Amino acid sequence: MKLRNFTLKVCAGLLLLSGALITLGQPLPQRLSKDALTTAAREIIATARYCALITLDSKGRAQARTMDPFPPDDNMLVWFGTNPNSRKVAEIRRNNRVTLYYFDREGPAYVAISGIARLVNDPKEKARRWKDEWKAFYPDRKKGYLLIAVTPQELEIVSEKKGIVGDAVRWTPPTVRFGSERPRGTRRTLRRR
User: Of 3.40.250.10, 2.30.110.10, 2.60.120.200, 1.20.1730.10, which CATH number belongs to 31-177?
Assistant: First the structure.
Protein backbone atom coordinates (compact mmCIF):
# COMPACT_ATOMS: atom_id res chain seq x y z
CA MET A 1 0.00 0.00 0.00
CA LYS A 2 2.86 2.39 0.90
CA LEU A 3 4.62 1.51 -2.36
CA ARG A 4 1.42 2.21 -4.32
CA ASN A 5 0.98 5.67 -2.67
CA PHE A 6 4.64 6.44 -3.30
CA THR A 7 4.30 5.40 -6.96
CA LEU A 8 1.20 7.57 -7.39
CA LYS A 9 2.99 10.57 -5.86
CA VAL A 10 6.03 10.05 -8.09
CA CYS A 11 3.81 9.74 -11.20
CA ALA A 12 1.86 12.85 -10.23
CA GLY A 13 5.12 14.73 -9.68
CA LEU A 14 6.47 13.63 -13.07
CA LEU A 15 3.24 14.64 -14.73
CA LEU A 16 3.40 18.10 -13.16
CA LEU A 17 7.08 18.43 -14.09
CA SER A 18 6.43 17.42 -17.71
CA GLY A 19 3.57 19.94 -17.90
CA ALA A 20 5.87 22.62 -16.54
CA LEU A 21 8.57 21.75 -19.09
CA ILE A 22 6.06 21.88 -21.94
CA THR A 23 4.81 25.24 -20.67
CA LEU A 24 8.40 26.56 -20.49
CA GLY A 25 8.67 26.02 -24.24
CA GLN A 26 5.57 28.17 -24.83
CA PRO A 27 5.84 31.96 -24.88
CA LEU A 28 4.12 33.43 -21.87
CA PRO A 29 1.38 35.93 -22.71
CA GLN A 30 2.31 39.52 -22.06
CA ARG A 31 0.47 41.39 -19.36
CA LEU A 32 -0.12 44.72 -21.09
CA SER A 33 -1.74 47.86 -19.71
CA LYS A 34 -5.14 49.11 -20.83
CA ASP A 35 -3.42 51.91 -22.77
CA ALA A 36 -1.06 49.49 -24.56
CA LEU A 37 -3.92 47.17 -25.51
CA THR A 38 -6.07 50.10 -26.68
CA THR A 39 -3.20 51.50 -28.76
CA ALA A 40 -2.65 48.11 -30.40
CA ALA A 41 -6.41 47.83 -31.01
CA ARG A 42 -6.45 51.22 -32.74
CA GLU A 43 -3.66 50.06 -35.08
CA ILE A 44 -5.57 46.89 -35.99
CA ILE A 45 -8.77 48.88 -36.52
CA ALA A 46 -6.95 51.33 -38.83
CA THR A 47 -5.42 48.47 -40.82
CA ALA A 48 -8.72 46.58 -41.11
CA ARG A 49 -10.66 49.66 -42.30
CA TYR A 50 -14.02 47.81 -42.45
CA CYS A 51 -15.65 45.90 -39.65
CA ALA A 52 -18.63 43.66 -39.04
CA LEU A 53 -21.51 45.11 -37.04
CA ILE A 54 -23.27 42.24 -35.30
CA THR A 55 -26.82 42.65 -33.97
CA LEU A 56 -29.58 40.26 -32.92
CA ASP A 57 -32.74 39.88 -34.98
CA SER A 58 -36.24 39.40 -33.55
CA LYS A 59 -35.66 35.63 -33.26
CA GLY A 60 -32.37 36.08 -31.38
CA ARG A 61 -30.19 35.13 -34.36
CA ALA A 62 -26.92 37.01 -34.86
CA GLN A 63 -26.90 39.22 -37.96
CA ALA A 64 -23.57 40.49 -39.31
CA ARG A 65 -22.94 43.07 -41.98
CA THR A 66 -19.87 44.88 -43.25
CA MET A 67 -19.66 48.52 -42.19
CA ASP A 68 -17.42 51.47 -43.06
CA PRO A 69 -16.85 53.02 -39.62
CA PHE A 70 -15.18 56.22 -38.59
CA PRO A 71 -12.01 55.69 -36.54
CA PRO A 72 -12.73 55.37 -32.81
CA ASP A 73 -12.62 58.62 -30.86
CA ASP A 74 -10.56 59.15 -27.69
CA ASN A 75 -13.04 57.06 -25.66
CA MET A 76 -13.09 54.28 -28.31
CA LEU A 77 -16.61 55.38 -29.32
CA VAL A 78 -17.23 54.19 -32.90
CA TRP A 79 -19.57 55.94 -35.35
CA PHE A 80 -21.27 54.60 -38.51
CA GLY A 81 -23.62 55.98 -41.10
CA THR A 82 -26.67 54.00 -42.16
CA ASN A 83 -30.12 54.14 -43.69
CA PRO A 84 -32.80 54.73 -41.01
CA ASN A 85 -35.02 52.09 -42.68
CA SER A 86 -32.41 49.32 -42.53
CA ARG A 87 -32.80 46.05 -40.64
CA LYS A 88 -29.87 46.96 -38.39
CA VAL A 89 -31.72 50.05 -37.15
CA ALA A 90 -34.82 47.98 -36.31
CA GLU A 91 -32.63 45.41 -34.55
CA ILE A 92 -30.83 48.10 -32.53
CA ARG A 93 -34.18 49.57 -31.49
CA ARG A 94 -35.17 46.13 -30.18
CA ASN A 95 -31.82 45.30 -28.56
CA ASN A 96 -29.05 47.88 -28.49
CA ARG A 97 -26.28 45.46 -27.45
CA VAL A 98 -23.95 44.99 -30.42
CA THR A 99 -20.53 43.65 -31.31
CA LEU A 100 -18.02 45.15 -33.74
CA TYR A 101 -15.46 42.80 -35.25
CA TYR A 102 -12.31 44.05 -37.02
CA PHE A 103 -9.95 41.54 -38.66
CA ASP A 104 -6.44 42.08 -40.02
CA ARG A 105 -5.59 39.00 -42.03
CA GLU A 106 -1.95 40.03 -42.53
CA GLY A 107 -1.36 40.45 -38.77
CA PRO A 108 -3.00 38.05 -38.12
CA ALA A 109 -4.99 40.05 -35.60
CA TYR A 110 -8.50 40.94 -34.54
CA VAL A 111 -10.40 43.31 -32.29
CA ALA A 112 -13.91 42.62 -31.01
CA ILE A 113 -15.76 45.44 -29.28
CA SER A 114 -18.94 44.69 -27.31
CA GLY A 115 -20.99 47.75 -26.60
CA ILE A 116 -24.20 49.70 -26.60
CA ALA A 117 -25.47 51.22 -29.86
CA ARG A 118 -27.35 54.51 -30.02
CA LEU A 119 -29.21 55.92 -33.01
CA VAL A 120 -28.28 59.56 -33.53
CA ASN A 121 -30.19 61.91 -35.83
CA ASP A 122 -28.63 65.20 -34.76
CA PRO A 123 -27.97 67.39 -37.86
CA LYS A 124 -24.68 68.74 -36.48
CA GLU A 125 -23.35 65.25 -35.75
CA LYS A 126 -24.50 64.06 -39.17
CA ALA A 127 -22.64 66.96 -40.81
CA ARG A 128 -19.47 66.15 -38.81
CA ARG A 129 -19.64 62.45 -39.62
CA TRP A 130 -19.90 62.22 -43.35
CA LYS A 131 -17.75 60.65 -46.09
CA ASP A 132 -18.05 62.07 -49.60
CA GLU A 133 -17.84 58.57 -51.11
CA TRP A 134 -21.24 57.88 -49.52
CA LYS A 135 -23.13 60.36 -51.75
CA ALA A 136 -24.56 57.60 -53.96
CA PHE A 137 -25.89 55.69 -50.94
CA TYR A 138 -27.53 58.68 -49.26
CA PRO A 139 -28.98 61.07 -51.86
CA ASP A 140 -31.24 62.61 -49.17
CA ARG A 141 -28.87 63.18 -46.25
CA LYS A 142 -31.55 64.91 -44.20
CA LYS A 143 -34.03 62.00 -44.07
CA GLY A 144 -32.10 59.06 -45.49
CA TYR A 145 -28.96 59.23 -43.35
CA LEU A 146 -28.70 58.25 -39.70
CA LEU A 147 -25.77 57.70 -37.37
CA ILE A 148 -25.06 54.77 -35.10
CA ALA A 149 -22.75 55.45 -32.14
CA VAL A 150 -21.34 52.40 -30.36
CA THR A 151 -20.13 53.00 -26.81
CA PRO A 152 -17.68 50.23 -25.89
CA GLN A 153 -18.16 48.16 -22.77
CA GLU A 154 -15.45 45.61 -23.49
CA LEU A 155 -12.71 45.12 -26.06
CA GLU A 156 -10.91 41.86 -26.88
CA ILE A 157 -7.70 41.83 -28.88
CA VAL A 158 -5.35 39.25 -30.36
CA SER A 159 -2.28 40.14 -32.42
CA GLU A 160 0.34 37.51 -33.16
CA LYS A 161 2.72 40.12 -34.59
CA LYS A 162 2.63 42.12 -31.34
CA GLY A 163 2.70 39.03 -29.11
CA ILE A 164 -0.79 39.72 -27.75
CA VAL A 165 -2.13 36.19 -27.62
CA GLY A 166 -3.93 35.72 -24.33
CA ASP A 167 -4.28 32.55 -22.29
CA ALA A 168 -2.85 29.47 -24.06
CA VAL A 169 -5.03 26.99 -22.15
CA ARG A 170 -8.48 28.59 -22.36
CA TRP A 171 -7.76 30.75 -25.42
CA THR A 172 -9.03 33.78 -23.53
CA PRO A 173 -7.89 36.97 -25.30
CA PRO A 174 -6.63 40.02 -23.44
CA THR A 175 -9.61 42.21 -22.55
CA VAL A 176 -10.12 45.89 -21.79
CA ARG A 177 -13.22 46.91 -19.86
CA PHE A 178 -14.53 50.44 -20.23
CA GLY A 179 -16.32 52.62 -17.67
CA SER A 180 -19.91 53.71 -17.95
CA GLU A 181 -19.19 57.38 -18.66
CA ARG A 182 -21.46 58.86 -21.30
CA PRO A 183 -19.39 59.97 -24.30
CA ARG A 184 -19.88 63.41 -25.78
CA GLY A 185 -22.02 63.86 -28.85
CA THR A 186 -24.49 61.04 -28.18
CA ARG A 187 -27.20 62.82 -26.19
CA ARG A 188 -29.74 63.22 -28.93
CA THR A 189 -31.10 59.94 -30.22
CA LEU A 190 -33.66 59.10 -32.85
CA ARG A 191 -37.02 58.40 -31.31
CA ARG A 192 -39.77 56.33 -32.86
CA ARG A 193 -42.86 58.28 -33.76
Answer: 2.30.110.10
